[in-house]
Design brief:
This protein is an alpha/beta fold. It has one domain: 3-Layer(aba) Sandwich (Rossmann fold). Strands 1-2-4-3-5-6-11-12 form an eight-stranded mixed beta sheet, sandwiched between helices. The protein has a two-stranded antiparallel ribbon with strand order 7-8. A two-stranded antiparallel ribbon has the order 9-10. Strand 1 and strand 2 form a beta hairpin.
Length: 373
C-alpha cells in the first residue's frame, strides 16, 4: 500500500513539475522525414518508411495551421499511420507566413503550391498517381486545384473537415449579414493594413471555438494528474495551437469575400476575378469526412460537397470529434483513418482493374454516386 501511494505521489509530482516548470510531460513528436524540395512555402517532405510499390499520399494542410496537424504525437499521427500501412507519404509545408507574403492569394495555392507538390510527389515515385489527403480549407483548396488542372497526376482526394457551404456555419451568419451590407468593412481595412490576419489573432480565434476546453483545463489537469498519457494529449494540442501561423492578406480577403460573404462554393463555382473554377470539373474519386460535433466546419457545411461535386463519385462519412479531433484525435484511428484506409484500398483495386494502367495511375472518376452514411 505504501509503495502504491509513493508511486502515485511521485507520478503526480513529476507531472505537475513538468507542466509548470519543466519542458512538459513528453517531448514533441516528429515522425522521421527527409526534405526532398526546399523552397519558401513549398517545402516537400517524405516521411521515412520502407520502399514499396504503393501509390504515394500527399498530405495538404490548411493555412493558419501548422503542418504538424498530420503528425501531432505518437499514436495520434496520421503520417505515422500511413507510413505503417506501407504507403509512401509526403507532406507539403508552407512554413511561416509574414507581412512580406501579404499579396499571396488563393491562386498561389491552386495554381502553384499544391500542383507543384503533386507533381514533385509523383516524380519522386516514378510518375505514380497521387492520393491527396487534406484537412480543413486544405481540402477545399485541393478540390479547387483538381477542378482547375486536369493534367495533374491526382488519383483521389480525401478532404477532412473541409468547408464547402459557408451558409451552414452558424458562427459566421452574423458576419455574413454584416459583410453583405458593408462590403466587408471594417475588417477589410484592418487586414489590408496589417497585411493579413496575424498568427496571434488566429490562435485566439481557434481558442474561442474551444472555449469549453480552455475553461475546464485546470479541472482536467487536476483530474488527470496521474494520467501522463492524457496530459500528453492535452499538451500536444496546446503546442499545436501555439504554433498557428498567419493568414496572408489577399488570401484572407478572397476567403472573406468569395467564400464567407458570397458563399460561392455552395453553388459550385469559385469566382476569382474573371476566372471561374467549377467543382463539377473534379473527376477523381473523393472522400469527404465531417465531424458531427465540429463547430468550425459543421457536418452540413462539409456535406455541401456532395451536392456540387457532380462530376465524380463521392463518399461521405461522419464521426464525432472537434475540428482537429476528427483528423488526429484519440478516436480518429477507429473512424477517419479507417475510412481513409478503405478508400485508398478501393483506389488500389480500381487502378488494377483499369486496362493497361501503370502503378497507381490517376484515372477519371466514375460518375456514379456513393451513398453517404
Amino acid at each position: 500500500m505504501l509503495r502504491f501511494l509513493t508511486t502515485h505521489v511521485s507520478t503526480a509530482a513529476r507531472n505537475a513539475w513538468a507542466l509548470t516548470f519543466g519542458d512538459g510531460v513528453e517531448p514533441p513528436h516528429s515522425t522521421p522525414s527527409t526534405v526532398i524540395h526546399d523552397e519558401p512555402h513549398q517545402v516537400l517532405r517524405r516521411f521515412t518508411g520502407p520502399a514499396t510499390d504503393a501509390s504515394p499520399v500527399l498530405l495538404v494542410p490548411p493555412l493558419a495551421a501548422p503542418a504538424s496537424c498530420f503528425d501531432l504525437r505518437k499514436g495520434q499521427s496520421l503520417a505515422e499511420f500511413l507510413v505503417g500501412t506501407g504507403r509512401p507519404t509526403y507532406l507539403v509545408d508552407y512554413g511561416e507566413i509574414g507581412f512580406a507574403d501579404r499579396r499571396m492569394g488563393m491562386e498561389d495555392w491552386i495554381d502553384e503550391i499544391i500542383p507543384n507538390a503533386v507533381r514533385r510527389t509523383s516524380a519522386a515515385e516514378n510518375g505514380a498517381g497521387v492520393d491527396v489527403v487534406a484537412w480543413s480549407i486544405g481540402g477545399t483548396l485541393s478540390l479547387l486545384t483538381a477542378a482547375a488542372h486536369h493534367d495533374l497526376p491526382i488519383r483521389s482526394i480525401t478532404a477532412v473537415g473541409s468547408p464547402i457551404d459557408y451558409g451552414k456555419l452558424p458562427m459566421l451568419q452574423l458576419w455574413r449579414r454584416i459583410g453583405k451590407r458593408t462590403g466587408g468593412e471594417p475588417v477589410t481595412s484592418v487586414y489590408r493594413l496589417a497585411g493579413g490576419i496575424p498568427g496571434a489573432l488566429v490562435r485566439t480565434a481557434f481558442s474561442v471555438t474551444a472555449l469549453d476546453r480552455t475553461l475546464t483545463k485546470p479541472a482536467f489537469i487536476a483530474r488527470n494528474l496521474l494520467d501522463t498519457d492524457a496530459l500528453g494529449k492535452m499538451q500536444a494540442v496546446d503546442r499545436f495551437m501555439s504554433a498557428m501561423p498567419a493568414y496572408p492578406g489577399r488570401f484572407y480577403g478572397q476567403v472573406n469575400g468569395r467564400l464567407i460573404i458570397h458563399n460561392d462554393l455552395a453553388r459550385g463555382t469559385l469566382k476569382l476575378g474573371n476566372r471561374r473554377i467549377h467543382l463539377a470539373d473534379v473527376t477523381v474519386p473523393v472522400l469527404l469526412v465531417a465531424g458531427t460535433t465540429d463547430v468550425i466546419t459543421t457536418e452540413a457545411a462539409a456535406r455541401g460537397g456532395t451536392r456540387v461535386l457532380t462530376g465524380t463519385s463521392v463518399r461521405f462519412e461522419t464521426t464525432r470529434g472537434s475540428h482537429l479531433g476528427i483528423l488526429t484525435g484519440p478516436d480518429a484511428r477507429e473512424t477517419t483513418w479507417c475510412y481513409l484506409d478503405e478508400f485508398l484500398t478501393a483506389q488500389d483495386a480500381r487502378a488494377l482493374r483499369a486496362p493497361g494502367s501503370a502503378r497507381g495511375a490517376a484515372a477519371p472518376g466514375s460518375s456514379s454516386r456513393v451513398a453517404a452514411r
